[in-house]
Write a structure and sequence with these properties.
It contains 12 helices and 11 strands. By secondary structure, it is α/β, with parallel strands linked by helices. The strands form 3 sheets. Strands 1, 2, 3, 4 and 11 form a 5-stranded mixed sheet that branches. Strands 5-6-7-10 form a 4-stranded parallel sheet, with helices on one face. A hairpin with a 5-residue loop joins strand 2 and strand 3. Helix 1 runs parallel beside helix 4. It binds calcium ion. The site of calcium ion (CA) has 3 residues, from strand 2. Calcium ion binds next to strand 2.
């Protein structure tokens, strides 16, 4: 069975990480809903993809003089009450050239706010009670080393919220993800969490952590991951090689290493409006990953389309 993880909520249809996007993802049939988590100035875990506010909110208009020397506005510089004054919009390019996905929810329309992690948990657990379903959460600890430089232990604070909400054991409906391998080991061995951990795998050029992701793709690298995590979350291009000449798509050897170590495979991101060239269309892509690769989960911006294809 392949679980469907709503990537930043139903982000294909509504501004990412808003409570509206969470409720919609729930209604469209997600098995898990993702929360990216960063900290406010008063150390509340909030649900936001970036440590910056400027690509997804109207912070520049609301607080024009609160950027740092690098010209960016940081969530960490605002108390929760101030963050609640911001309106969330469709993700926009930094250079002011408009929405990243121009066909999605109209840029700048609607009245959406940044939720706290607690508010999202309340919404999902509330819906679990009223519908009788058991939809899980899938939080990501964002930039733990950067938060530590700022003087705050984000993992500790997030684990406190999770524990308070009865997310404590490997049988609870939660996966906890991070790009930083040192932090995942610390969560397991120092903070003594028994939650199921997922090692995210990015590209070294993204500067997500000081990990070398090329090493993680090797047989020894995958074996190392299996000492602290139950699965991996690689970007989907790491999982196939496409030969344009004979229109052939083959799995990479990394898939075999993941299977050898009995790790779960939860690749990201399946987007109906951005399909890699190797695949004819969204349908071919989803079916290849489910039937040929037999992935255990998919992070998708389009929950309904993915669910329908997997039926
Ligand atoms: Ca994420």
């Amino acid at each position: 069975m392949t679980i469907i993880i709503a990537h930043r909520g139903a982000s294909g249809y509504l501004p990412e990480h808003t409570l509206s996007a969470v409720a919609f993802a729930y209604a469209l049939g997600a098995d898990f809903i993702e929360q990216d988590v960063v900290l406010s100035k008063d150390s509340h875990p909030i649900v936001l993809h970036d440590i910056h506010l400027d690509q997804v909110t109207n912070v520049k208009d609301k607080f024009p003089h609160r950027s740092r020397a690098d010209g960016r506005w940081y969530a960490r510089d605002f108390d929760l009450l101030e963050l609640k004054l911001l309106t969330v919009n469709e993700r926009a390019h930094l250079d002011g050239s408009g929405a990243v996905f121009s066909k999605r929810f109209p840029y700048g329309q609607g009245n959406f706010q940044i939720p706290t992690l607690q508010e999202e948990i309340d919404l999902i657990k509330g819906l679990n009670q009223s519908t009788g379903r058991n939809v899980g959460i899938y939080p990501e600890i964002k930039k733990p080393a950067w938060h530590m430089q700022e003087g705050v232990d984000i993992s500790k604070l997030v684990l406190e919220v999770l524990s308070k909400n009865d997310y404590r054991s490997p049988t609870d409906s939660i996966f906890l993800q991070c790009f930083d391998s040192k932090e995942l080991k610390r969560i397991k061995n120092t903070l003594n969490s028994s939650l199921r951990l997922i090692q995210l795998i990015g590209n070294n050029t993204w500067n997500e952590s000081d990990d070398d992701y090329n090493l993680m793709l090797t047989r020894q690298g995958v074996k190392n991951i299996s000492s602290y995590a139950v699965g991996v979350g690689p970007y989907l291009q790491l999982l196939y090689q496409a030969s344009v000449a004979n229109n052939n798509i083959q799995p990479t050897i990394f898939n075999q290493f993941v299977r050898e170590n009995n790790l779960l495979m939860h690749p990201y991101t399946f987007r109906a409006d951005t399909v890699p060239l190797a695949f004819e269309d969204f349908s071919e892509m989803v079916i290849w990953f489910s039937d040929t690769l037999k992935v255990d989960g998919m992070f998708t911006d389009f929950v309904d389309k993915t669910v329908n294809l997997l039926k």
